Each structure stands twice: as C-alpha cells, then as structure tokens.
C-alpha cells in the first residue's frame, strides 16, 4: 500500500464556500486536487493507495481525514471532493478526540495530528518514509522501499517541528530542484512507483 500524507494549512471548519475553494477554504482546491491525484486513474480508483490530509488551519485544532480505495460514488472533481471534506468537518465539528469517525465508505476523520499519523503508521509496520523536498536526494538515485509513505506540504510547506519529526524515521526525497504543485508531485511519484511496481 502506498501512503501519502499532505500537511495542509487549509481551514479546520466546514465554514468555507464550495464556490470559492482557493480563498474561503485557504486552498481547499489544492487539497482536493491532491486527493484526486492520489486515488484516481482514468475511469477507476486505485486499489493500492490511501491519502491522509492533515488540516492545520484555523479556527479549530488540527483534524485529519483519510481517503481509502474503498470510496464509491465520489466524483473526481475539486468541488465534489471539497464537499465531502466539508461534510466530514461538519460531522466532527467541536470534537477534539482522536477516534476515527467514518463519514462514508473510505472517508474517515479524526482529531489526530500529523505526528499521531506518523506514529500510527510506524505501529502498522511502515518503515519507509520519504519527505518530498526540493533539497532532498534525487528520487532517481534512491531505492524506494515497500509500503512507502510519502509526506508533502501544501504551498506554504510543513511546520519545522513536524518536518523534523518525520525525518527521524525517513529521508528527504527530491523530484527536482524546482517547486512543483503538490498534486503534480503526487502524480509523478505514482508514475515512478507504477513503473517500478512499488507497493
């Protein structure tokens, strides 16, 4: 199973407009595109990938959503994905506990933080963590291990303490010295892993 974790500055409240995802949700459009890049192929959903979205924006404490391959009847467009995120945030409104709540098949939400998710994955047995970063090792020169976990930030990056935390368990990996869109980074990583049959 490939795992992606997006560290996002997007809003932690359902109070954002589906008509203005870039501004009202603090780049919820970016979040939605990353979910699409992680889970969808042409005409079908991948069965080998999941993505955790860690929302760190105001006004509530961090919340994490996870999208699994079990999702059904969810359209791969920004507004549809953002709508499901808004439903999840509304269902979890005001809660601070770290228990997972299932919104729909393959979509869950909790009050777990970024570091909680890393710890959970370590307990699952994941050992190959890769922080996507312009100043990392060239991905072409790295042998990616089984059940890889790819961590990336949004347009503002990842908090330094969380970046340091994940690097205790992994390495920085670079696609290029230039900064690409987060969703494009996911697509490139998927392409590389598909070609090399890495799961």
The CATH architecture would be 3-Layer(aba) Sandwich
Summarize the biggest pleated sheet.
Answer: 8 strands, mixed
Number of DSSP strand runs: 10
What do we call the CATH topology?
Answer: Alpha/beta knot
Beta-strand content bin: 25-35%
Poorly predicted runs are none
The largest sheet has its strands arranged as 6-7-5-4-1-9-8-10
CATH top level?
Answer: Alpha Beta
Going by CATH, the homologous superfamily would be: SPOUT methyltransferase, trefoil knot domain
Question: Any key phrases for this structure?
Answer:
199 residues, alpha/beta, Alpha/beta knot, eight-stranded mixed β-sheet, two-stranded antiparallel sheet
Explain what you see.
The protein is an alpha/beta fold and 199 residues long. The protein has a single domain (2-196), classed as Alpha/beta knot (3-Layer(aba) Sandwich), CATH 3.40.1280.10. The chain has 6 helices and 10 strands; from the N terminus they run βααββββαββαββαβα. The protein has helices spanning 21-24, 28-39, 78-91, 114-124, 160-167, 182-196, and strands spanning 2-8, 40-41, 44-45, 49-55, 63-67, 101-104, 107-110, 129-138, 149-153, 170-174. It has an 8-stranded mixed sheet with strand order 6-7-5-4-1-9-8-10. The protein is globular, with a radius of gyration of 16 Å.
């Amino acid at each position: 199973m490939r795992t992606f974790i997006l560290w996002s500055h997007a809003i932690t409240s359902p109070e954002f407009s589906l008509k203005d995802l870039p501004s009202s949700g603090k780049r919820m459009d970016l979040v939605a595109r990353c979910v699409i890049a992680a889970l969808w192929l042409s005409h079908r959903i991948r069965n080998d990938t999941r993505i955790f979205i860690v929302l760190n924006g105001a006004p509530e404490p961090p919340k994490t959503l996870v999208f699994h391959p079990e999702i059904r009847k969810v359209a791969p467009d920004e507004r549809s994905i953002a709508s499901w995120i808004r439903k999840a945030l509304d269902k979890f409104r005001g809660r601070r506990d770290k228990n997972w709540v299932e919104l729909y098949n393959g979509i869950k939400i909790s009050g777990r933080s970024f570091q909680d998710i890393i710890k959970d994955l370590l307990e699952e047995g994941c050992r190959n963590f890769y922080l996507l970063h312009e100043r990392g090792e060239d991905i072409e020169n790295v042998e990616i291990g089984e059940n890889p976990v790819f961590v990336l930030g949004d347009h503002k990056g990842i908090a330094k303490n969380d970046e340091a935390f994940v690097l205790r368990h992994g390495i920085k990996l670079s696609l290029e010295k230039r900064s690409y869109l987060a969703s494009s980074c996911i697509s490139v990583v998927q392409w590389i892993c598909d070609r090399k049959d890495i799961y």
